[in-house]
């Protein structure tokens, strides 16, 4: 598990390899990831949007931006956490993801970024 704390918000990421399949005459590698966002600060915060960079071993980079996570904009009281599952497709059996969440602190209306640590995506059959 990969984890990092930014401004009192802890991000934990676990990944899984989901399998391979063909799409548009190309093989794709499906990966899942589970993210837990834990509020270790003393203030209530809300996740408003996300920004991801997804890399594969063929030097392809995909950027994903959007509101919330999985259709939600979770509000986290101190000590609370929010967990969600998502996934991505790569055209190679190796890759990585990194990014950040844009959040707001309800105590002072300050907007801030919470960094998502870089994590690897790897199909087990591709390892030595």
Automatic annotation (TrEMBL):
This is Co2+/Mg2+ efflux protein ApaG. It comes from the Bacteria. InterPro entries: ApaG-like, ApaG_domain, ApaG_sf. SUPFAM superfamilies: ApaG-like. It comes from Paucihalobacter ruber. It holds the Pfam family DUF525. Residues 3-128 form the ApaG domain.
């Amino acid at each position: 598990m990969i984890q990092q704390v930014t401004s009192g918000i802890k991000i934990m990421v676990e990944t899984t390899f989901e399998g391979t399949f063909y799409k548009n005459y190309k093989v794709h590698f499906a990966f899942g990831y589970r993210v837990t966002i834990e509020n270790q600060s003393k203030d209530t915060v809300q996740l408003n949007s996300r920004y991801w960079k997804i890399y594969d071993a063929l030097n392809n980079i995909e950027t994903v931006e959007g509101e919330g996570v999985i259709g939600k904009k979770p509000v986290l009281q101190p000590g609370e956490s929010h967990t969600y599952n998502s996934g991505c497709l790569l055209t190679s059996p190796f890759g990585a993801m990194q990014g950040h969440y844009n959040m707001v602190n309800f105590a002072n209306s300050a907007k801030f970024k919470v960094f998502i640590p870089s994590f690897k995506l790897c199909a087990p059959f591709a390892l030595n």
